[in-house]
Amino acid sequence: MIVHAGLLAARVGGRWRGVLVEGPSGSGKSDLALRALDLGFRLVADDRVLLWTSGGRLFGRAPDLLRDLLEVRGQGVLAASGLPLAEVAVIARAGAPERMPDDPRASLLGVDLPLLELDLREASAPAKLGRALARL
């Protein structure tokens, strides 16, 4: 299944854990990726993510034509060395977050995952992604 999203990964507990970043076009997915890369995240996919399951876990990678590419508004498509794939551990969705949400979840391809709603353009958004992964 291919989704309109980005996939970033961070090393947590000795393994790469991914955050699937969902949102409409222009919501800031690629901008968030650019800022997260500066904090040690690695790009897996920008704009489109190919998802599949294995052993009850969700994985993602970039479609071949988009691998190692990141679209930066105002600069075009840039090379960005990425990871070939990552397990999706959290879904981050563009939106207005609740102040104190009750363990929100989302399901993709039958896999239930933690859901983090956030303003993708907020300065703290990359740090929030890191903290969401660290809580797993």
**Rg from Cα:** 14 Å
Structural class: mainly beta
Q: Could you name the ranges where pLDDT drops below 50 across 5 or more consecutive residues?
A: none
| Helical amount | 10-25%
Provide the residue-averaged pLDDT: 91
Count of helix runs: 2
Explained architecture:
This protein is 14% helix and 47% strand. The protein has 136 residues and is mainly beta. It has a five-stranded mixed barrel. The radius of gyration is 14 Å and the shape is globular.
Summarize this structure as a short list of keywords or feature phrases.
two-stranded antiparallel sheet; mainly beta; five-stranded mixed beta barrel
Short description:
The chain is mostly beta strands and 136 residues long. 14% of the residues lie in helices and 47% in strands.
Give the secondary structure arrangement, pairings included:
Blueprint: E1 2-12, E2 15-22, H1 29-37, E3 42-45, E4 48-54, E5 57-61, E6 69-72, E7 76-79, E8 86-94, E9 105-108, E10 111-118, H2 125-134
Parallel strand pairs: 2-8, 8-10
Antiparallel strand pairs: 1-2, 1-3, 1-4, 4-5, 5-8, 6-7, 9-10
